Write the structure tokens for this entry.
Amino acid sequence: MVVYTSLNLKDSVPIAEAFEKKYGVKLTLWRSSSEKVLQRALTEARGGHFAVDAFELNGPEMEALYREGMLEEFFSPQFRNLPPAAFPKHRHYAADRFNFFTIAYNTNLVKPNEVPNSYEDLLHPRWVGRIGIEAGDTDWFGSIVKLMGEDKGLAFFRKLSQMKPQIRTGHTLMAELVASGEIPLAATIYNHNAERLLVNGAPVKWKALTPTFGRPNAVAVAKRAPRPHAALLFVDFMLSLEGQTLIKQRNRGSGEHRGRHEPEQVSLRNDRSRGGHRRVGEMGEAVVGTFPAGTGHKKG
């Protein structure tokens, strides 16, 4: 079977191997950014080429696939373990994980007393030309505008644009640019991208501002999938306790760094950790809330 995903290969390949071992079904991954996955899927469909069986990618792009009529409604016995907020009203996909937006900074270039403690701190003159923003984080933009109110939120982003931010595509790339010193501070980064570099000795740290926003990611079955039964096995596996545990484990630092914070993807299953609290919006919207209890994250 063929899966198009935005989950990076360090995470998706071990999950694919576990799926193959469990079911004996060969799984081929095509991985890119959610935007490129969407573009490829649309281009292939319009050309009458239907190779993909299932998708695993960001909520906004998944919603776009649904609106283009490219997703098949499906049912999984794992649905009973998910809260209602894990599904859009049309129920053509289901959330399997969250990525959290945090800031990240190069510790050689940013002094401890300079690290922002709030979103407004991103507007300090010291960050002119020294701040990075991921190009596709429109849901982060919308969530901040909603939080602040339209007038105040749009005014905030007008001021942020005057900071001459460096716009890049890809959260992994953004983390690497921060670690290399090309961009001293990233305003939107997934915390686990920065943590992976940190545990390998890179001069980078991340920090969660208050409130913390998250992006839901989801699984879905492709309409006209060549192997629909295998696709159903895959989405069921990703939503199962085994799949959710693998997602969480693949976003941890190595066992050699047990004294450090180990970031985690947040499971949506009701039978998973209940220690943290968060307010979950409908699929396609950002999550607002706190990190799970016991993660030891650095909060703003």
